[in-house]
Design brief:
The protein is built from six helices and two strands. It has 141 residues and is mostly helical.
Length: 141
């Protein structure tokens, strides 16, 4: 298999895996993504969230409004720009995100256990650093 074929197979397979794992989600993907960004990056503005998600400000604002209403995030005045607010993950939001992540991990773990032999699991484990390095390279890190 040449590099282009490998790249296409990898893209298709990882895309299918991600879509399958998301089937276990109980939160809308946009909301879970925002909670994840806040967890990894710390406070962000709605504009930051929109940029990271690659969506319009209006779309991000709609999801943020829902998260605020459910107490999963809180808004605080931006320290250097009074026109903006910083979004913070609340403890309720952190707990909800942890539940969602655990649900995904449990669901995927059950699939790994049911579909892969011990040798295949070791092969998958050995591939993780390669996939991580590839992801970092694509992200420009």
């Amino acid at each position: 298999m040449d590099d282009k074929q490998l790249a296409e197979e990898l893209r298709l397979t990882i895309g299918q895996l991600v879509r399958s794992v998301r089937a276990a989600d109980t939160m809308p993907p946009g909301e879970a993504a925002i909670l994840g960004y806040l967890d990894r990056s710390g406070p962000l503005t709605t504009a930051d969230v929109a940029q990271q998600r690659g969506v319009s400000h209006q779309s991000a604002a709609k999801a943020v409004k829902e998260l605020l209403a459910r107490g999963l995030v809180r808004a605080e005045a931006h320290p250097s720009d009074g026109r903006k607010v910083l979004l913070h993950l609340t403890s309720t939001g952190r707990d909800r995100l942890a539940e969602e992540r655990q649900r995904r991990a449990d669901w995927l773990g059950t699939a790994i256990d049911g579909a892969l032999s011990p040798g295949e699991r070791r092969t998958l484990e050995a591939a993780l650093p390669l996939l991580s390095r590839l992801a970092s390279h694509l992200a420009g890190n």
